[in-house]
């Protein structure tokens, strides 16, 4: 099986990571793209290590330095589902391996996707045996929303952020994902960003940072820091 690899960013606090945040980039991009967000999210999760693996396959449209989780030659629901299902075991194995290597559990894992990476984060994160602490999906969509209720195994809290001026994946995809997630019993916060094209803005990052901090830093607030 293909092994994923890509850039990483150590915990801001130094030392051994207490959490793991995995970025999943969009179609035709690579791990360098999203690892650049680590410094923005680091202050909210100072003990987290950030990983940004390159997707498993060279991108058919941009083979020099671009990667894809699955091809988009035919953009339809069937090929998307097939592509997500083929890439899922590769991502699952990667997550298992990275958690084990650091002695961390799913409760210390967050997945952050952009575009096609959001499709993977939702597809894989909701079907793993144990829920991650959080899934954050920027400018993405839920693959095969009608199948979710029958296939879901884990229900981590989900944040969806989508630009209302997205010219690549329509803004309507967010509401469709939100509806299917809620129907399957997942806690969802969904926020549309007026005027934002297919990208991540400051507000989206702040929402993500705040969610990660709330869900993953709570064990430090038990008062043992007081004199």
Can you describe what's shown?
The chain is of the alpha/beta class. It is built from seven helices and nine strands. It has helices at residues 31-35, 38-41, 77-102, 116-125, 145-151, 172-183, 202-216, and strands spanning 8-9, 19-24, 48-51, 57-58, 67-68, 109-114, 134-138, 158-163, 188-193. The strands form two sheets. The protein has a seven-stranded mixed sheet with strand order 1-3-2-6-7-8-9, sandwiched between helices. The protein has a two-stranded antiparallel ribbon with strand order 4-5. Helix 3 (77-102) packs across helix 4 and helix 5 runs parallel beside helix 6 (172-183). The longest helix has 26 residues, at 77-102. Mean pLDDT is 94; it is low at 220-227.
């Amino acid at each position: 099986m293909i092994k994923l690899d890509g850039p990483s960013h150590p915990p801001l606090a130094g030392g051994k990571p207490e959490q793991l945040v995995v970025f999943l980039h969009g179609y035709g991009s690579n791990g360098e793209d999203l690892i650049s967000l680590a410094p923005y999210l680091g202050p909210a999760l100072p003990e987290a290590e950030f990983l940004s693996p390159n997707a498993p396959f060279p991108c058919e449209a941009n083979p020099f330095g671009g990667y894809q989780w699955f091809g988009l030659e035919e953009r339809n629901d069937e090929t998307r589902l097939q592509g997500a299902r083929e890439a899922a075991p590769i991502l699952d194995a990667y997550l298992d391996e990275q958690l084990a290597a650091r002695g961390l559990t799913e409760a210390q894992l967050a997945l952050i996707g952009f575009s096609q990476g959001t499709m993977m984060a939702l597809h894989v994160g909701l079907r793993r045996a144990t829920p991650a602490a959080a899934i954050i999906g920027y400018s993405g969509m839920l693959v095969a929303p009608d199948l979710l209720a029958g296939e879901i195994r884990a229900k981590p809290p989900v944040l969806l952020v989508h630009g209302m001026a997205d010219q690549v994946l329509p803004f309507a995809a967010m509401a469709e994902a939100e509806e299917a997630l809620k129907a399957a019993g997942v806690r969802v916060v969904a926020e549309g960003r007026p005027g934002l094209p297919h990208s991540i803005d400051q507000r989206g990052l702040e929402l993500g940072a705040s969610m990660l901090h709330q869900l993953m830093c709570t064990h430090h607030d038990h008062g043992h820091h007081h004199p």
